[in-house]
Amino acid sequence: MRKDVANLLAKLGKRDFHYQEFADRFSDVELWPLFETLIHDPRILNAPPAEDHGEVAITANAATTAATPAPAATLAAIAPARPESEASGGDAAPASKDLSSLFARYGGQNTEDAPGDVHALLQKLAQQIEQGKL
Amino acid sequence: MPLILCHSPKGGAGTSFVAAHLAMALAEAGHGATAIDMTRQDSLKLYFGLKPISEIPDLEAPENQGLTIGGVSLRQGWRATHAPAFANALDNGELPFSGGTFVVADIAADDTMLRDQLLPHASLMVVPVSPTALGLAALTQVVPGTPLIDLDYTAFIINRLDETRRFARNANSFLRELLGGKLIGSIHEDESVNEAVAMAKLLPAHAPASGALADIRALAKTIAQVCAPPQTEEEAA
Ligand SMILES: Nc1ncnc2c1ncn2[C@@H]1O[C@H](COP(=O)(O)OP(=O)(O)OP(=O)(O)O)[C@@H](O)[C@H]1O
Ligand SMILES: [Mg+2]
What we know:
The complex is a heterodimer of chains A (134) and B (237). Chain A has 5 helices and no strands. Chain A is 29% helix and 0% strand. Chain A has helices at residues 3-12, 33-40, 75-78, 99-102, 118-130. Chain A folds into 2 domains: 25-54 and 97-134, no CATH class; 56-87, no CATH class. Chain A starts with a helix and ends with a helix. Chain B has 237 residues and is α/β, with parallel strands linked by helices. In chain B, helix 5 links the parallel strand 6 (124-129) and strand 7. In chain B, 54% of the residues are buried. Chain B contains 9 helices and 8 strands. In chain B, helix 1 packs across helix 9 (211-227). At the A-B interface, helix 1, helix 2 and helix 3 of A face helix 5, strand 7, helix 6, strand 8 and helix 9 of B. Bound molecules: adenosine-5'-triphosphate and magnesium ion. Adenosine-5'-triphosphate binds next to helix 1, strand 7 and helix 7 of chain B.
């Protein structure tokens, strides 16, 4: 439970609420034309991500932390250690992933609507444009 | 002495808010922290409970003239970082920040020159993004010459997220897909951020249950672990 929610419920003296955080499903995201523009912008993505697109995890600039005894940790290494309750609002992004599997992660039951990858997302955008929905 | 740059391609994204509270949260977690306001606007201090009229010590003022608030040593660095000597020192490989602490720099959106000067010396660049159409559009301008998703040492944070707003919600999901692990989290829209400044109080004192405060504390933990040797944390267990 998010800390502010817990605090609010405690203040109100309500202890019998059911609490659930709803993870966004990417398939539920409305496809704004701006999103399509950004995906096509070479300043955002140089080329459509290939299957072998590398890990998208952040690291610190090792050159600047060379004086420190341990190698810079990567998010991939630390994220699993983070207890669920500490993640505020479930907003912390997953540790690391492959761009091609990004969209598949949200697949679930609704795979028909869930874009499998960036290509599928683009296809879906194109369809909506064709149908005059965008 | 990890240097963390806070810079956004879009003004008003909350860069100063993030810089101030990142430094405070690092200090709270037991790390040494210095926050340097490198902007002419001089508003970083307002997040430390200071009033517009208060002056904070210059970056080059002697240590005994320092000012520590919320565990953070606060410095005004606009003058010093825009003096020719600063660029020369950086060119010579000298980084005029010393000590075993985190140094968090607040850099103005349009000051890409200073950002580019400091980038090679930084452990991490933290980029606050507002979940608005203009905030997303500005992502095309983060570091010219490198596609956004190929940027190294760069962590994005969505700031002022209000999930009751349709576009903000969609933008949040979109950025999570696009940026993956480079989006390290979001900070919720929280009026107590504004109120604390209006009260000239620290946010943790004014609104200890603030949602934005809880969010930035979680993010600071992530950033500390990315930048610092793990053994400085007590939570080895
Ligand atoms: N999470 C938040 N919730 C509510 N208000 C916020 C939040 N973060 C920042 N603000 C407010 O947004 C405004 C802009 O914040 P801030 O000055 O920190 O941004 P900035 O990116 O440094 O701006 P500038 O480009 O002018 O330097 C301020 O009024 C601040 O109080
Ligand atoms: Mg600012």
